[in-house]
Amino acid sequence: MACKHISWLEVVEDSSGERSIVNTTRLDRIIQELPNSPNQYPRLVHFIGTKNKDQALRNVFPNNNFGRKYEKGDTNLRVDNTTINTPTPLLISDSNPFRGFTASSRAQCHVNHTHTFTWATDSASISDVIFTRLLFPFSDLICIFADDFASLESVALRISSWMSSHNPRQEMKSQLLIVVSETGPLDSLRDEDFRLMLHSNGRDPGEMFSTIKIFRLAGEYLSPLARYQRLKDRVYELTSRRYITRKEMGYDFSFIHFSAFFDSAILHTAENNTPFNFIAMSRLGRQSMADDMGHVRRFLELALGFDGPYEAIALFIASCILVDAYPRRMHYFPPRTILDFVYRDKLIAALSSNLTAGCIRFIISQIETNLIKFGDEIKSGKTSLELHIRNMKELAYFFAPYRTNTSCLFCLARPPERHLSCGHAICDICIRRNGKEVVGRQDRYLVSCSFDNGKLTADLKPKTAGVRMISIDGGGTRGVAPLAFMKMVEDSMPGCPLHEQIDYAAGSSSGGLIVLGIFYKQWKPQKGKQLFLSMAERCFQRPKSAYECVQSTLRWLISDGFYDESKLESILQEMFPGRLFDHLPDTISGTRFALTATSTGNSRWIFGNYNAGIFKSRNADYDLVRVDNVQEEVYAWEAGRATSAAPVGTYWDGGLVFPDPVKLAMFESERLWPESIPDVVISLGTGIQPKTKNDRNSLRRLWEGFMDMLDGQSHSRDTEKALERYIRGSFFRLNTMLQLPIRLDNLKDLEELSRTVHISPKSRRDTASAALALLLSNFYLSLDRSPRFELGLYYYSASIRCRTDCKAIISALTHLYPMPKKFVTESGALGELCCDDICESCYRYRKQVTIVVRHPDDYVTISVKMDNGIERKISGFPQRMSWFQKQEGLNNKFGSEDHDIPGAFQCSICDLHSLPQKRIACASDALHQKKRVRY
């Protein structure tokens, strides 16, 4: 059904008196009709009046058929048909300044976005602000038809009222044309007289308008078209002149950017009684180098320590600003304007801690000169990322020796998260910017260092995928139980290494050592079990003689330990020789993990292989161990010794303060991926101790109470009860009942404990369920494009993808459950889950689907259902469809931090061409009600 609404903006009032502004998305519909909107640049003329205004519209733009009946509103919008195919089409908006508020309504033929005013209650102020802070800044020419007003004074009063609410620091000023008729009451009005009238009200009209002119229409003795021909020529002339001025100033927005700015301005106007700023709005929602100049300060300290020349320092900082300020799809604001508005003051503050005022002025001037030079290259067609990589290579002579674990030297905007083989550290955003996707994978990137020959292969969580996490309790030698569970889970999914199925891992005490083995060294669980048993036998040997017993007792009295710490330290050095936060050869950087520890005063600490970019901005009762000097970075064996009850420096057993590290895993996962929900939460125990009944020995009861406090089992029950319902179904607590109490240093019962895990029917059921959840969490939804609105429904074209080796995942699913499987929503089936949707060219999985909802904020859940009745959700669900739009940047027209992942693998078959859609999923009305989520 064709939409006949031409209304652009509406101000509505509901029965309670609440006022809102409605964006009818009229501009978006016009953009869809343009032949090349990304490379077309609008001019906008705004007509204000009533009867005379309407007559002018019909005759100035006769090809637009203004006499046709359309659904009009407070402010209407059209495009001049004669300019549609030109580089600068002319938009025509018109308003009735005397129209009051209307009642709200819902259209079925187009999308309406309603924004409630949170600051304004006076109707006059709302009207003035909409004109002065929303419509006028986007208009090249304002035409006021004076004959539609009661008198000259009323025109002046209206303009004065507008000036009282306009932005005095408005970046762009529109032109004002007062249109009067030859025979009307204002036919003798002169420009100077009108300006004096405006000045008499105490306002300078020059603050709001670049020019103010009086235009007299020709006499009525001419035909209508001839009478308005001069006005038509004047409109074209002034709007074209204004566009040239805007282009010189860097405000020549494409239609895509013009629409995005206007949408943002509508929301800003509804929520804030503050001026709208184009540069600030283009950067909204994107982390910037300007947010934390501490990275620039640390880079400067490094450079000064290496006697780096100021010219090279300035060139590199300018290059980092360039890649930060101009991502792909960003509008090109002049570099000097960007520097002044965003960076200059913060740069001066960052440099002032190490440099004199004269040196600061020199470096800032060099930064400005370099940015202007880079800007010329961008205008010639090069991207900021290409220029930045080139600059890094040219400056490698100076900066290749630099090493820091607290600032990413690829961007100076974030802390690093991983290390290349050369020792340089890099953040995940720069991995996506600089890396190339590995063929056959949706999550694996290969990165080469721009300073030298370092390499890195890293697995990154897809933006719309959920988080898989695992936590491992402490328990001394009973750590064989978690390893047995992990082996059973991995055996249930052949060809899919466990460490590739986990995004975050946390461990306390012996659980921390297991985390090091499985997720740091990336051992198979079977190898981890063998090495763990070998370590336990070497560390926990019982004294064989009276002399050794006395020696052990003296060791306990002197150093708080029954066992020889040097022996444990030697073993850990053999097993984990590298630094914890560093590149580890022959591994693929993937799982983020943490080992727990405690320190003086029972303070809580974690050792991790990631950084603490926002630790200081939250109220956590623990902190991450990280040092500024890379030469003092903690070794993996030191972290293992600290978490496993053998004091190192001021740190010791993390089980004392993190007996159940699942809470830590969930908290840290939310911190690292704040927008993602948990897919799978696996908590591994070390055996449930049998309770002693009716023991009257107070010391024994006290001891058992203390040990119960250290036992992760009781804490995990509390954690599970506290989980939200949609997470609780994805929580797996894997533990086994012990027949007899086992000491933390007991060696003789370890094989029996491992066998108990393997033969338990409950263990087999639980590990199979956990394996199924992990396998299905590899499938996630990715939107192909922005939604289409039709007849009151939103249609989302999307693809179900697989984040790891899709053939191995589907094969493991078939091994675990041989019966057929299909993707379903609450309203229907989407098609079979099988190898038919693996691309023969790029070997990646892609199943195209269409999701239909009544509103983008409706929740949807995609699950996999099997013939045996088992149904479990895929990654990232339940979720709103609007969340997917936000995560994939479909609403952001000014680029993303990762520059749209230029190294993403483009398949000529499954990426550049649409695949046949197997089935359409339609969300029913039940989506508006409270969701019934399947797991």
From TrEMBL:
GO CC entries: membrane
Motif (GXSXG): 507-511
Pfam families in the record: Patatin
Keyword tags: Hydrolase, Lipid degradation, Lipid metabolism, Metal-binding, Zinc, Zinc-finger
Top-level division of the source organism's lineage: Eukaryota
Positions of short motif GXGXXG: 474-479
Active-site residue list: S509 (nucleophile), D653 (proton acceptor)
One GO-annotated biological process of the protein: lipid catabolic process
Record-given protein name: PNPLA domain-containing protein
Source organism (scientific name): Talaromyces stipitatus (strain ATCC 10500 / CBS 375.48 / QM 6759 / NRRL 1006) (Penicillium stipitatum)
